[in-house]
Specification:
The complex is a heterodimer of chains A (249) and B (384). With 249 residues, chain A is an alpha/beta fold. Chain A has one domain: HUPs (Rossmann fold). Helix content of chain A is 29%, strand content 27%. Chain A has a nine-stranded mixed beta sheet, with helices on both faces. In chain A, strands 2-3 form a two-stranded antiparallel ribbon. In chain A, helix 2 crosses helix 5. The longest helix of chain A has 17 residues. The radius of gyration of chain B is 21 Å and the shape is globular. In chain B, helix 3 runs antiparallel to helix 4, helix 4 packs antiparallel against helix 5 and helix 8 runs antiparallel to helix 9. Chain B is α+β, with helices and mostly antiparallel strands. The N and C termini of chain B lie far apart (45 Å). Classes of the chains: A alpha/beta (249), B alpha+beta (384). At the A-B interface, helix 2 and helix 5 of A face helix 1 of B.
Chain lengths: 249, 384
């Protein structure tokens, strides 16, 4: 099975984000970058598919030289091949990313493309669908369970208040949601071995931007909590909020 | 994210950071959820052994030829840091296996013994322990009574060791004894006639660690089980490895109590505002942050000295002494910040505080490390 996993490099969700001078980017100083957590789930799913069906897992990232660090994580987790589509800088939009990933995918001709349902940096949620369109492949998003028998694909996805089961066929694109699997920890011997594995470099193709970031602002520090008391009326209100807004009961 | 005031991460290599992050995730998912119950029960979480082995936490620096990872000192230190962020007992287990058992076997045992023991110690099927300290010889190991006598087929071992981490669990013990008045090492295998390892009970510290006595009554040790090293430098070379890991480990415990203190002080409201807004609380947080940051710089630097062959035992005494000391003081301050909550097992404070009491006096007491440095400055040994 020829498996392609697309990953992105994002700030650790525990990082304190500050807007850089110029107001269009974040200040990277002291920020730890990691594999997008949903992409980690995609890597794990790719590895499990390989373990079951044999084949090769190729992991691709788009970005500058620094993005190689997350490819090392992917190699340490066990992917066979790591590829960086190199950009000159960080100023590109989702369409640029999708065109470049699609362009690379065409050269690889994968049976399946796995990726996270979204990157936790810009949260654009565009990649699975845009890739599907550009590659003319079925794309199933927010998948929590994946079964592949021959070329038949069954994917479960979360929908409001329930789940949806979708059938498709390979080749297809699957975007991973939390719950699909628990990603493995890179093991120390594998981390050491990953150090010497090659990373293939591919130059990014030029794609005109369709989106421009006009500005970034920190969220206002206004209190977002709601003050309620223990009166009968408020208790009913709390139950209603927990049910309808927080959706925990 | 953990405390990194000076952007020390810029100096660590990709694989060193990846090892740290991976072990941190492992500790968060596998150790933190279970450690309190083991601490209360006074048991070591044996289920962790195969998991730790699979992670590659045994034989971190050991050559890949013998099942290790072949990583460097700094990687080893960072792994110990993360394990002790979980609990000193789990870090102690790994310290013993890596530095006090696998290190001397790789450094001083025959090829046959290396092949026999190292792969099994790496994959966790064998547990090791290290017997140096005796009931009456702690800071003065050179005075040890345990002795070996040459026989036709090997050696006859007699004596007793005390305060031995993993002793009762161990499949192989690295035991230091006097042979013709000179200290040398022996590999004593579980089941050797005359060898027993009863567990010591009643600890208020390192409760999730097994601590034992080792008793040798006319134990016959084959010739090939003798280590090829003579003198106190044998055990001390192992301790240098382990103490380096402890210096990093103590930072893990310190960061755990510091992180808890920052979180707690920002959410605990008194007099209508978070206690983090009070000057006395901020002073405590700043003390912890400053001392941990200094400890991180010192540990990082000694790791690089080791890797360049320039580390002296005194450098290791410095970081072991300093980092355990600031960790225990941080736990004390964290206890104040947490108020009454600081004594509950809902927070890691008292567990770390109690554990660090052991860490302070094992592997060279705080005071002995002070005197090692005192001798280094003055040229006068205060303890000989």
């Amino acid at each position: 099975m020829n498996i392609l996993v697309c990953i992105s490099r994002v700030p650790d969700t525990a990082s304190r984000i500050i807007v850089a001078s110029g107001g269009k980017t974040i200040d990277n100083t002291g920020i730890k970058f990691v594999v997008n957590p949903y992409d980690e789930i995609a890597i794990e799913e790719g590895l499990r598919l390989r373990e079951k069906n044999g084949g090769t897992v190729t992991c691709v990232v788009l970005g500058t030289e620094v993005s190689k660090d997350i490819l090392r994580t992917a190699l340490a987790m066990g992917v066979d091949k790591a590829v960086i589509i190199k950009t000159a800088d960080d100023n590109y939009d989702s369409y640029f990313t999708a065109e470049n990933l699609a362009n690379y995918a065409k050269t690889l001709n994968p049976d399946i493309i796995l990726l996270g349902k979204q990157s936790v940096d810009y949260d654009s949620l565009q990649m699975p669908s845009t890739l599907g369109e550009l590659l003319n492949m079925p794309s199933v998003s927010v998948v929590t369970k994946l079964t592949i028998e021959g070329t038949n694909v069954t994917a479960e996805r979360e929908v409001e208040g329930g789940k949806e089961v979708i059938s498709s066929t390979l080749p297809c694109i699957i975007s991973a949601q939390k719950g699909l699997n628990d990603p493995r920890y890179p093991k120390l011997p594998d981390i050491m071995k990953a150090k010497s594995k090659p990373i293939e470099e591919v130059a990014a193709i030029e794609v005109a931007a369709r989106v421009e970031i006009v500005g970034l602002e920190m969220p206002s520090k206004k209190r977002i909590g709601k003050l309620v008391t223990d009166s009968e009326v408020d208790i009913a209100e709390i139950v209603k909020l927990l049910h309808e807004e927080a959706k925990v009961i | 994210m953990s405390l990194d005031f000076f952007h020390l991460d810029d100096l660590y290599t990709e694989e060193e950071k990846l090892i740290r992050e991976s072990v941190r995730d492992f500790v968060n998912n596998e150790i933190l959820p279970i450690i309190e119950s083991h601490y209360h029960a006074g048991t070591f979480p044996m289920d962790l052994v195969p998991k730790m082995a699979e992670m590659g936490l045994f034989g971190i620096k050991t050559s890949t030829e013998f099942g290790g990872s072949g990583a460097n000192y700094t990687s080893y230190g960072l792994a110990m840091q993360e394990l002790e962020r979980g609990d000193s007992a789990v870090r102690s287990f790994a310290s013993v296996q890596n530095s006090l058992v696998m290190f001397p076997i790789e450094a001083y045992a025959s090829e046959e013994m290396k092949k026999k023991f190292l792969p099994k110690l790496a994959d966790g099927t064998f547990i090791g322990c290290f017997g140096l300290t005796e009931p009456d010889f702690g800071s003065n190991p050179g005075g040890m009574i345990t002795n070996a006598v040459k026989t036709d087929s090997g050696y006859l071992l007699n004596g007793a060791k005390m305060w031995i981490t993993n002793g009762t669990l161990a499949d192989v013990a690295v035991v230091w004894a006097k042979l013709d008045g000179k200290i040398t090492g022996f590999l004593v295998e579980k089941g050797t006639k005359g060898f027993s390892a009863p567990e010591m009970k009643g600890k208020h510290s390192l409760r999730a660690s097994v601590t034992s006595e080792l008793i040798f009554e006319d134990c016959e040790i084959p010739e090939e089980n003798r280590l090829n090293i003579n003198g106190l430098k044998g055990p001390l070379s192992c301790l240098s490895q382990a103490r380096f890991g402890i210096a990093y480990g103590a930072l893990g415990a310190a960061m755990a109590v510091y992180d808890s203190s920052v979180d707690y002080s920002k959410s605990r409201i008194q007099f209508g505002k978070p206690i983090a807004s009070f000057q006395l609380v901020q002073e405590k947080l700043v003390w912890m942050m400053s001392e941990i940051s200094k400890g991180q710089l010192a540990a990082y630097h000694v790791g690089r000295l080791f890797e360049n062959g320039k580390a002296r035992p005194q450098h290791i005494s410095f970081i072991k002494r300093n980092n355990v000391d600031i960790a225990i003081q941080s736990a004390r301050l964290a206890r104040d910040i947490h108020g009454a909550n600081g004594i509950l097992d809902e927070y890691p404070i008292m567990r770390h505080a109690a554990n660090l009491e052991s860490v302070r006096t094992y592997e060279g007491t705080h005071d002995i490390h002070t005197l090692i440095l005192g001798e280094d400055i003055t040229g006068i040994a205060a303890f000989s």
